[in-house]
Amino acid sequence: MSRLERKWDHIRLAIENGQTRSSAFDDIKFIHQSLPNIGISDVRLNQTIGELYLSSPIFINAMTGGGGEKTYSINKELAIAASELGLAMAVGSQMSAVKDRTQSYTYEVARKENPNGVLIANLGSEAKLDDAKYAIEMIEANALQIHLNVIQELTMPEGDRDFSGALKRIESIVNGVEVPVIVKEVGFGMSRETVQMLFSIGVQIADCGGAGGTNFAEIENKRREKSLPFFTDWGIPTPVSIAEASSISNISIFGSGGFMNGLDIVKGIALGADAIGIAGHFLRILVEKGTEALVDEMQELLMEITLIMTALGAKSISELKHVPLIISGETYHWLTQRGID
Ligand code: FNR
Questions:
Q1: Could you say which of 21, 192, 208, 248 would form a disulfide bridge with 258 (CB–CB 3.0 to 4.6 Å)?
Q2: Per UniProt, where does substrate bind (predicted)?
């Protein structure tokens, strides 16, 4: 099977599987405040994270690597939606264009449709410094994502089997490119130890991409003759991963993995994330209902976030990060055993 066919399989199976969320979000509760003392017009959703300006706390996370016409048209429509609402957007893995430069148009279209927006380049941890420079230049990216997908590769029959040297390669990219580097998981979560390692080599942002949403082990298992069921249940649930990751200071944290409503987004930020990435939920709406429906859903999410922030009396994302929470159930036990409060 070609890389292109495999990538289209991923899109098809991600949509067919349906979007899910981690039940660990139900372990998180806000404490109602009857006197928030603010109004909706006091709420500001924009912020600056290092050198990165974000007009809103949600962004379109990486999808659709592989090149080809489908990558082109999905990147084009996502970029149109992103530019309409001023959302940041990551393109999918650009490795196909690094290997075959005739494919670069399938990513360049995102910059063409959104000339002034925040665009994020994307490569895997096998990438070298020159690949990273090329990916950034290709879309005039404002930041670069490097994805870590060990469990996906191990579940794929044709996947990588050797993950050594990734941290060294990432370090050389961090030191050699001009834009902030975001290292991201793809749905298995990042532990505190992983985030500490990333911080130690100068990574500016960790997107802890937790378990509960798009499940690449499940997707790859559907493509295998004999499945590896233990990887389907693998990983750190999204809210737990955000709490783990944000226990490391001086590195910004993005949360992602299974976000599809305003309440979970606000919970993710209150647990310590600076911004929330959404992939599968947006892709499904785009493919099934089109670009206008996607823009409507993004607007709805921003409205829900604003309403909940008003109820909590949080005027900004940084205030939201400090509202009190009650954590119960398995999430409480996990964080207690890990000494995270
Ligand atoms: C992805 N994701 C992804 N991530 C990445 O860094 N590079 C990539 O090329 C892709 N490709 C890709 C294709 C498809 C079809 C999907 C649905 C997702 C992973 C994505 O960015 C995200 O980390 C996970 O999907 C978890 O978030 P959601 O989908 O639960 O919101």
A1: 21
A2: 6-7, 152
